[in-house]
Amino acid sequence: MNALRRLWRLRREDGRVKLALLFLLAALALLGYAASGALEYAALLEQPVEYVLAAAESGAALDAALRRLVESGGAVGASRQREYSVSAGEKTLAVTELDGAYLAACYGIEANGEVKRFWLGSAAFSSFCGSKAESPAQIAFEIGDKSETGAFYAAGSLPEGLAVARGTTKTLSGSASARVMFAKTDPSGADAVLLQSMGFSVVNREELVRRSYEAELLLTRLGFSLLSAAFAGMLARLYWKTRTVR
Q1: Helix/strand/coil for 134
Q2: 64: which of 77, 92, 207, 233 lies 20 to 30 Å off by Cα?
Q3: Phi and psi of 18, rounded to 5°?
Q4: Pairwise CA distance, residues 195 & 88, whole Å
């Protein structure tokens, strides 16, 4: 308590003490900002990342390459994918069809049974089923020239705008498009290099570039905050040492 009273007296009697305290507070605030950025960067690296891929061929070689990605321990899941649209009135939903193993491993979706079911991210569910709809929503829809009724589930594990359904060997066999999920974000780009070396072309490059920029921005924020905190701390020490009142 006596030390605080003395510090308060010095602050009133010497402007350099006041400046030293201000710079000390600024240094502490910048260190907190840097710590926040470091936590955000660590959280970003822990997020899974998905690659939408185009393969040069759709035969057995593609199946072998996808199996190799999972069996090597590098990927959480890998699947061929097929895209199509369903419509209900004026609303249209883009659906990505994936195999059941991928849905279970990557999204925690157990897609068993023969009932026509779809799983939608929050934005896709609200847009297609309605903002007040309850999950599952039973909706009559059209696919091509066929009319069907299906169950549409809200799935929090999906990206907001994604809608998925379980495909079969028959429906997926002719597709040269694939989807692969890695457990963590790789800022070095090694995963993308691996996929390209296996003959894949990355389709969702814009999303991956966005994540890369986000990581770089967080690193820049971290570095700037630490440098600024160090400079503020140095000024605080300088003003404290050159105070005229002791």
Answers
A1: coil
A2: 207
A3: -60, -45
A4: 37
More confident residue, 22 or 246: 22
Half-sphere exposure of 234 (CA within 13 A, CB side): 6
Burial of residue 209, with CB atoms counted within 10 A of its CB: 0-12 exposed, 13-18 middle, 19 or more buried: exposed
Alpha carbon 155 to its chain centroid, in Å, reads 16
pLDDT at 5: 57
Peptide bond into 187 cis (omega under 30): no
Work out the end-to-end distance of the chain between its first and last CA atoms, rounded to an integer number of angstroms.
Answer: 17
User: Tens digits of per-residue pLDDT, 9-58?
Assistant: 555 555 677 777 888 889 999 999 999 989 998 888 888 999 999 987 77
Cα(102)–Cα(30) distance, integer angstroms: 43
Q: Which amino acid is at 104?
A: A
**What residue ranges do the domains of the chain occupy?**
13-45+212-241, 48-183
Query: What's the mean per-residue pLDDT of the chain?
Result: 86
CA-to-CA distance for 182 and 127, rounded, in angstroms? 28
Q: What is the per-residue DSSP string for 64-80?
A: HHHHHHHHTTS-SEEEE
Determine the Cα–Cα distance for residues 186 and 28; give it in Å rounded to an integer.
31
Residue 98 Cα distances to 122, 163, 168, angstroms: 19, 10, 8
Pick 24 or 165 by higher pLDDT.
165
Asked if 183 and 50 touch (Cβ cutoff 8 Å), the reply is no
Q: What's the one-letter identity of residue 39?
A: L
* Helix (H) or strand (E) segment spanning residue 49: strand 49-55
Structure confidence by residue, pLDDT tens digits, 187-229: 777 888 888 888 889 898 888 888 888 888 998 989 999 999 9
